[in-house]
Amino acid sequence: DEFSSSGRGRFHKGYLQYGGMSDPLKIRIGRFFMYKGVALGVLDGLEFQQKMSKNYKLSIFAGMMGPLSRRFEFEKPDEALSFGGELRWTPGNLWHFKKTNVSLSYTNQQRNELETRHRIGLNAFGSLNHKTNVYAVVQLRTSESPIRRIVSRVRYADNSWSGMLEGAFVSIDMADYSWLNGFEHSSYTRLRFALDRNIKSRLWAVGIDGSFLFSNEPGIRLGPFVTIPYGQLGYRFSIGDRGKSDGLWASLHYSPYEGIEAYASGSLMTYEWEAYDIESEDLTMFQTGLRYTPPFKENVTVSGEYQVYQSPEFTSDRRFMGGLKWKFDHGRSK
């Protein structure tokens, strides 16, 4: 597989940005990861975000899909056109909800002159009270079966307990060029939950989470986890007809000195348990890295990360990623 070839440089992202998340104007140009509404993927192009009034914000983007190889090259504009946008409305109090946030998004993304993502989406968030939040997502296709994803989620948290309950219907679609088309995929209904109990503070907790999958091949995946001041560790069991995904998972971080953060995460499971059947549990994902922000120059962050991805299809895909982030605004970091 070309993407997994070792010993080759890859250009994952590199961009120039003006403005931050809370600023009335934000502009990005270069190669960056786009995750806004229904848009998803690496873009070589421009993103423009403007706060139109107190309650409305408009975002638009245009460019080319980044090459799958992530090489220092670009796709042809007439073969990988990508554009779209999002209109966000934040009315505050609305009916029984507070901190309400509603967004309408659209994207048309192409590769090799074929549409890979042509969708319309509606996202909504609101707080019933200071302990309970509600989130909903509807994504529609413009062709074939219209429903792509419907998700509804409720979260609750107080000083002692926190929990989440989510219901979803998802219809999987995959581009013709993707190697994931070699695996079975279909529509499914999923129920997810999580419940944890804080011990003295939110830095210490024990809990359980799980997923119930309803499809042609139903399955259950659940297990315990613990939260400590340095992250989370857990174990998941799988039951049913889906590919087995028993194994440990962890997400940890540690800051030995001011400005230095070390982190690591890893898991042993099947790839995209909810959507695809890969009849092996020999898939491993692991990454570890280091971020450094000098106390005397807080607008600069240097990072390095080592990743390992291993499966029956990719015997060994190992990579090192380096990064540099520099915030500047007339000598003033933001």
Task: Write a concise keyword list for the protein shown above.
globular; single chain; 19-stranded antiparallel beta sheet; 0% helix; two-stranded antiparallel sheet
Structure description:
There is one protein chain. The protein is mainly beta and 334 residues long. It has strands spanning 14-18, 25-36, 39-51, 56-65, 81-94, 97-111, 114-127, 132-141, 147-157, 161-170, 184-185, 188-199, 201-214, 219-228, 231-240, 247-254, 260-268, 276-277, 284-292, 300-310, 317-326. The strands form 2 sheets. It has a 19-stranded antiparallel sheet, with no helix packed on it. Strands 11-18 form a two-stranded antiparallel sheet.
Summarize the topology.
Layout: E1 14-18, E2 25-36, E3 39-51, E4 56-65, E5 81-94, E6 97-111, E7 114-127, E8 132-141, E9 147-157, E10 161-170, E11 184-185, E12 188-199, E13 201-214, E14 219-228, E15 231-240, E16 247-254, E17 260-268, E18 276-277, E19 284-292, E20 300-310, E21 317-326
Antiparallel strand pairs: 1-2, 2-3, 3-4, 4-5, 5-6, 6-7, 7-8, 8-9, 9-10, 10-12, 11-18, 12-13, 13-14, 14-15, 15-16, 16-17, 17-19, 19-20, 20-21
